[in-house]
Amino acid sequence: MESNIEKAIDDIKLDTVEDRIETAQKLNSALSMEQFSATLDAWASKFTPEYMEELSHKCYDDDRNYPENFSNWFYHIKDFGYFKCANVIANQIFTWEETEAFRHTDMFDEVDWNKINKILEPTLDKMDKYRIYNIKNGCFSNKFDFKTCNATKDNLAKQLWKINYRSAELETGGYTELVVRENIPYIASVTPTIYNGMPLREELRVFYNMDKQEIEYIEDYWKYKYCEPYISSMTDKIIFNWFHNKLETRKVQHRERLQELKDIIYDNIHTLKFDGELKGIWSIDFMYVDDATSYSGLWLIDMARGFRSAYWNVDKLTYSTRKKMIEEMKNGR
What are 123-166's pLDDT values in tens digits? Predict the structure, then answer.
């Protein structure tokens, strides 16, 4: 007959925080202190090298299929129309074996950089030795520590490793690919920076219904009440307050500019064309550039499914969209 301990081990689940709490409670009730070590050994025996490799393959496949990966949405855009987009220098998709090489150690000083640079050769061959590029993995750029987003041919491997390390901490996904894009310049005397070098510009998050081909609603990406409490640097706080006209020295009125940009987006969103493969509501991020003449305009910089995005709010969706969602839920879709 199966013991309480054996049953507790068989029932172990670690997928969510709730699972982990429930598992701990079951083990606590099933074990005596004397049994604790033996139980851990029995549990650990399940995690064989073969099991871990199978799990790693599954994680790789899940990441490749993740809709937020750059390669899974960017190439569904067929025409940017009115809007601008940074040139994509490279979008390298890694094999499972290559991702294992990246994750061989979590100690920066122990990484085999020659091996990593060998993996990155297809991308490095496309990069100019004297240019600075903007980089990210498939889903994550680590923009809140912006110095890691900029890379040269010489330090690409180390910058990507730092991005992937932080990405793993935050469980963002995207480690199976690399994106290298042209760097959009800024004029330091006009545009201040926060987050270790990120130019602070007006950005808007557009919640766009792919099925209806229309906008549901638009949010200020840098919404004051949402962002300001999480800015730890006092210098960044001062700049952020200036940006939002909490200080009187900024000539541009943030709210007025936002409204002007919203009007432009509503008037021109029909020129942004997709191939019909993306479904549902997606967030589309636009950044406004006005300090570098040849780069002036609204730039499409990122996309994600709406429900995965900050500022997702079902109550702001149009009535017809909410009605359709309720009907689909009733039908089990």
Answer: 999 999 999 999 999 999 999 999 999 999 999 999 999 999 99
Q: Are 275 and 90 in contact (CB under 8 A)?
A: no
10 Å Cβ neighbour count for 318? 14
CA pair distance 288, 204, nearest whole angstrom: 8
For CA atoms 25, 31, 36, 42, give the dihedral sign.
negative
List the one residue out of 26, 2, 28 whose CA is nearest residue 12: 26
Structure confidence by residue, pLDDT tens digits, 178-237: 999 999 999 999 999 999 999 999 999 999 999 999 999 999 999 999 999 999 999 999
Dihedral pair phi/psi, residue 158, rounded to 5°: -70, -35
Other Cβ atoms within 10 Å of 268 Cβ, number:
13
Residue 22: closest CA among 32, 11, 33: 11
Rounded to two decimals, the pTM is 0.86
Q: How far apart are CA 218 and CA 225, in angstroms?
A: 16
Contact 151, 123 (CB under 8 A): no
Q: What is the pLDDT of residues 12-69, one digit of tens each?
A: 566 666 777 777 777 676 666 557 777 777 777 888 889 889 999 999 999 999 999 9
Cβ neighbours of 237 (radius 10 Å): 15
Q: Where are the domains of the chain?
A: 4-46, 70-183, 187-333
